[in-house]
Amino acid sequence: MVTLKGEHIFLRALEPEDLEFIFEIENDENLWELSNTQTPYSRYLIKQYLENAHKDIYEVKQLRLVISDYNNQTLGLIDLFNFDFKNKRAGLGILIKSEHDRYQGYGKEALKLLINYSFGQLHLHQLFCNISEENHTSLQLFKGQGFVEIGLKQDWNFDGASFKNEYLLQLINK
Q1: Contact 4, 110 (CB under 8 A)
Q2: Burial classification of residue 12, based on how many CB atoms lie within 10 Å of its CB (0-12 exposed, 13-18 middle, 19 or more buried)
Q3: Which residues form the N-acetyltransferase domain (predicted)?
Q4: DSSP, res 88
Q5: Helices marked H in 83-149 — which ranges?
Q6: Beta strand pairing status for 148-158 and 63-69?
Q7: Are 22 and 47 a contacting pair, CB within 8 Å?
Q8: Whose CA is closest to 131, among 115, 142, 145, 119?
């Protein structure tokens, strides 16, 4: 049985109470490069998003889960996106919001849980992620879980001052 509970954290569905947490993440300009965001989100739009977050991954092609510790502290978000049922693949992204909570193993544990869920419950064949060439921490995290670099997209993202390369990584369920 696949579980979304780990030793130190668990993954849960979005709740209306997550509005402020998501509002802060979506409007933090320091994080926009990670999500290719270019404009702020209103609380109204995020509220509407949360009202529809219950929809099935097969319908909306996305699954966003909250990373929480067992004290019910919200630590971050982990996403499956571009869910492609026909080809049995999805993109995967993760964010631990507070720098204080990073490097504590939460991201690694969340990633393991979602990989196991994706392969065991959703029966996906492969997962992929896109990571900036400069994001050594994320590259190390994903490679540590078996993801392999399969390509470098040159000058892929513009950060307002210069173009940045981005790696495409892939994990195939053997």
Answers
A1: no
A2: middle
A3: 9-170
A4: T
A5: 106-120, 136-144
A6: unpaired
A7: no
A8: 142
Number of neighbours of residue 39 by Cβ within 10 angstroms? 8
What domains sit in the chain, N to C, each tagged with a CATH number? 9-125 (3.40.630.30)
Distances (CA, A) of 37 to 5, 22, 34, 173: 30, 13, 8, 30
% of the chain exceeding 90 in pLDDT: 68
Return the number of other C-beta atoms located less than 10 Å from residue 10's C-beta: 19
The token duo for 79 is 């996403």
**Token pair listed for 144:** 């540590």
pLDDT digits (tens, 9 = 90+) for 10-44: 999 999 999 998 888 887 777 666 666 667 778 88
Neighbours of 137 (CB within 10 A): 13
What pTM does this model have?
0.90
Q: Amino acid identity, residue 94? A: I
Instruction: Tell me if 79 sits within 8 A of 64, measured CB to CB.
Output: yes
What is the phi-psi region of residue 164: left when phi exceeds 0, alpha when psi lies from -120 to 50, beta otherwise? beta
Tell me, what's the pLDDT at 44?
85
